[in-house]
Write a structure and sequence with these properties.
By secondary structure, the protein is mainly β. The chain is built from no helices and eleven strands. A hairpin with a 2-residue loop joins strand 9 and strand 10. The protein starts with a strand and ends with a strand.
Length: 117
């Protein structure tokens, strides 16, 4: 059974960099055709796809967040990390990591990140 767990600070100050890590157990993030993805949901809004890193290490980002986003991974720990720079209060959201291929997907429980001074 594949399980995901997001970790990171719950409070980030404006202009700083938000950094979250997703630890994957029961599955490998290096399998081609599998994608390790970050999604967020701001309060009162719908889900927003942020970007992903594929099994080969290729990355792809939302066009609206691309200039501020970096997704990397540590294959020795089976973890992938989101960094979102120059955050503003509009980046306040529940952040989810997901792992998926084809019609199959599994998500972490999500972690609340608030941007406030």
């Amino acid at each position: 059974q594949v399980q995901l767990q997001e970790t990171g600070p719950g409070l980030v100050k404006p202009s700083q960099t938000l950094s979250l890590t997703c630890t994957v157990s029961g599955g490998s993030i290096t399998i081609n055709g599998y994608y390790s993805t970050w999604i967020r949901q701001p309060p009162g809004k719908g889900l927003e796809w942020i970007g992903h890193i594929g099994g080969s290490g290729n990355t792809y980002y939302s066009s609206s967040l691309k200039s501020r986003t970096s997704i990397s991974r540590d294959t020795s720990k089976n973890q992938f990390t989101l960094q979102l720079s120059s955050v503003t209060p509009e980046d306040t959201a529940v952040y989810y990591c997901a792992y998926h291929t084809g019609n199959w997907q599994t998500w972490g429980q999500g972690t609340q990140v608030t941007v406030s001074s």
